[in-house]
Fold this protein.
Amino acid sequence: MIETSNSDNIEESEVHEECGVFGAYDFDGNDVATTIYYGLFALQHRGQESCGIAVSDTEGPKGIVNSRKDMGLASEVFDAESLEKLKGNIGVGHVRYSTAGSSCRENAQPLVLNYVKGTLALAHNGNLINAPELRDELSYTGAIFQTTIDSEVIAYYIARERLKTSSVEAAVANAMKKIKGAYSLVVMSPRKLIAARDVFGFKPLSIGKRDNAYFVSSETCAFSAIGAEFVRDVLPGEIVTITPDGISSDTSGCINKCARCIFEYIYFARPDSYIDGVGVYSSRIMAGRILAKTHPVEADIVVGVPESGNVAALGYSMESGIPYGIAFMKNSYVGRTFIKPKQSQRETSVKIKLNVLKDAVNGKRVIMIDDSIVRGTTSARIVKMLKDAGATEVHVRISSPPFLHPCYFGTDIPSDDQLIAHDHTVDQICKYIGADSLGYLDVTRLSELIDGKTDYCDACFTGNYPIEPPTEDIRGEYEK
Ligand code: SF4
C-alpha cells in the first residue's frame, strides 16, 4: 500500500536546484549592477527564495562594497532606484533556493566579508559534504558564523588562506584543497573576479564576454540575455582569474575525472543553455526519442508537463510520429507573496500553477512526458487533471530513471524513504498515479543525453556517488 501525502503544497513534490551565480567585471569602468540583475533574471529558475548583488569600484577605495540582498525574486528585490545606488564596475550576484541552511534573509547571498586584507564577496552554487567538520574546525579556532550556509565556510577558508598567500586566487586554491563536494564559485576581491569549479564539475559554470567586460554565469542562457558571447566553460577543478590584464587560469587542481550533474540536462538547466559543450535542448530531445523507442504506445497526442517535460515530449513526438500538443497552461507568476493554499482549501498549488487545456485532450489517448517522479503526489494530481478534462487514456513517460537515492551536491532530492521508487515497483507507481502505463528512461541510456560522454554523476539514480557521501543526511545540519 502506498502512502499518500497530505500536503497540497506543490513545492514538496518537485526537485529544486539550489542556486545560480553570476559575476561581472567591466574594464571600462561602467556600473555592472543592472547587467548582473538581468543575468540573475535569466537564472531565476535556479532559485526563487532569495537573491542579491554585491558590487565594488576597482578604481575607488579598497574595501568598499555596495550590496543588497533579500528574500524574493530578482524583480521583487530590485528596482531601478536600488540598482542605481549599487555603484561599481565589478560585482557578483546570486539567486538561491535553500537545500542546506534555512530560508531566511541572513542566508541570502552574496556573502560579503571584511577582513584584514580588505573585502571579499562570494556567491556559491552547490553543497559541501564536509561542511560540518570544517565549520567545527573553524568555530574551535574562534570563527563566529552569521549564517547557517556552507558558503560561509568557504568564504572563511579563503579569507584565512589569504593571510598566508600572495594573492586571492592562491587563497582560493588552498581553500579548495580543504573543501569537498559540489561548488561553482564566483569571488570578488577589490580588483579581481575569480571563478572556480570543484574538481568533479558537478555544477555548471561558464565565461562570457561583451565589449570590454567579462562575465561568469551558472548557465549560458544569461549571456544571451545580456548580449554577451559565450567564451568557454570553466573546467572542473580550474580557477579562473579575471583582471584588466586578461584571463589567467590555474588548472593545477584538475583531475582526469569529472562528474557533471546529469540532472542539469534533464531538468534544472534552461533548454537554451549549453553545459560543457552539450546543448540542454538536444539532451531533452534525445531523452524523448529514447523514451519513444523503449516505451512505445499507441496514442493520439504527446504532451509535456511544463517546463522541462515540453522538449522531451517534442523528442518523443519526432521519434514516434505521434502529434505533439500543448495540454497545460502554466502560471509562472508565483512570487514571494503568493499565499499557498491550506490543506482545508479546495484549491491546490498544482491547479493554481497548472491548468489543462480541455480542448487539447478531450476524448484523446494522451502520452504525458514529465522529467521525474519524487513522491508521486504531483504526478497523480496531473494525471487526474487530464482525465477530468476528458483524456481517455494517460500514458506517463519520465525523461529520467527512477530516483532511488538522495543528492548531497546541491539539490533537494530527498532521503530514500521519501522517494516513491525506492520501495515501489514501476507497476505500483503507475497504479498510484492513476496512469494507464508508465515508463522511465533506462539508466544505461543516460550517456546518450550528453553525446556519449561517460563522465557524469547519476548517483540519485544508481547510488554510485563520485565522492563518498556523508554517513548521515547533513543537509540542514547547522539548524539542529
Ligand atoms: S546525485 Fe543526481 S541531482 Fe545530485 S549531482 Fe548527482 S546526478 Fe545531479
